[in-house]
Each structure stands twice: as C-alpha cells, then as structure tokens.
Design goal:
Layout: H1 17-28, H2 35-52, E1 59-66, E2 70-72, E3 77-85, E4 91-92, E5 94-95, H3 98-105, E6 114-118, E7 121-125, E8 130-138, H4 151-155, H5 157-167
Parallel strand pairs: 5-6
Antiparallel strand pairs: 1-8, 2-7, 3-4, 3-8, 6-7
Helix pairs in contact: 1-5, 2-5
C-alpha cells in the first residue's frame, strides 16, 4: 500500500478573527474552548508582537501641527523613526533627550530645530509653530469583532495561531 502526504498548513486559510478562533479551538481539540480565554491569549500575543516586531508594515507617517512645546503622539505610537519639516529640501530635526532639549533651548521661541520624545509626546525646541512629518512604528492593529483582520493576520496567520497557542 502506498501513502500520499498532503500539506496541511491550515494556517494559510486563516484570514479573519472568526477563522483564527476556530483554528485555535481545533488545535486545542476543544470546540467549546472559552472564547474569552482565546481573546485574552490573542491580546497577550499582540502585546508580544508590539514589543518584538519592527517591520516595514508597521511604519506610519503622519503630519502634526506643532504650536507649543509638547504635542501628543498617536495612540498607536510604538517607536520613532524620524521627524522632519517638509520643504525643498526637507529639514530633519535633531534628536535630544527631554532634559537635553530643555537645557539647550530653555523654552525659547523660534522655528523648531530639535525634538525629544517624552510621555507619548513630541517636545520641540525652540518652541514655535510648525507642520512636522513624523515617521514612526505603529502598533499591530488588534483583532476585534469590529476589526476582524489586519495586515499581520493576512500576511502571516501562522504567527497569530502560534502566538495564541503559546499565550493561552
């Protein structure tokens, strides 16, 4: 008798949260495995993704209007890549520590030349009005009933499946 092996990479068929939950339950061999526990495991997996991943799909660019010393960064902000002012040519702001920028510029007014990140805010010096472009790493959008898919699940469903299983 001859046997034939077929690849069974079911992870490639996972494209939504519902399908991911079904696959987790299948891997657990428990079709009634508690949904709340699966969601908590997915939350822990997403926290790990946000700590460990820095990939091009996470890069996000926004324009922010600076009118004071500190301006809030987006809720999905993880890490900064660059801050610059659009122009011909673009003008890159220098990076400082929060203490360093305050010591150097001491709250003076003018065109922002430097920045620091402090408490989910971008701090500029000198303090002035400017439109800045901020390139940053954004969090992986969490899977929810209202957001049943994201770029990571679409491109690498096996990462989500593994993450949920080891986090559960």
């Amino acid at each position: 008798m001859t046997s034939i092996a077929f690849p069974s990479d079911t992870a490639s068929y996972i494209t939504t949260l519902t399908q991911l939950v079904e696959e987790v339950r299948d891997e657990m061999d428990d079709s009634g495995f508690d949904l709340d526990r699966i969601y908590r495991a997915l939350g822990r997996a997403e926290a790990m993704f946000n700590r460990e991943l820095r990939v091009p799909q996470m890069e996000t660019e926004i324009d922010i209007a600076v009118t004071q010393e500190g301006t809030d960064l987006p809720q999905d902000f993880l890490a900064l890549r660059a801050v610059y002012q659009e122009g011909a040519p673009d003008r890159t702001l220098k990076s400082y520590s929060p203490a360093g920028i305050r010591e150097l510029y001491q709250g003076r007014s003018g065109t922002p030349e430097a920045y620091a990140i402090e408490n989910r805010r971008v701090i500029v010096g000198p303090v002035g009005t400017a439109s800045l472009t901020v390139l940053y790493y954004a969090k992986v959008p969490p899977l929810t009933d209202n957001n049943p898919t994201n770029w990571l699940l679409t491109k690498h469903p096996n990462v989500y499946l593994y993450g949920a299983l080891v986090s559960g």
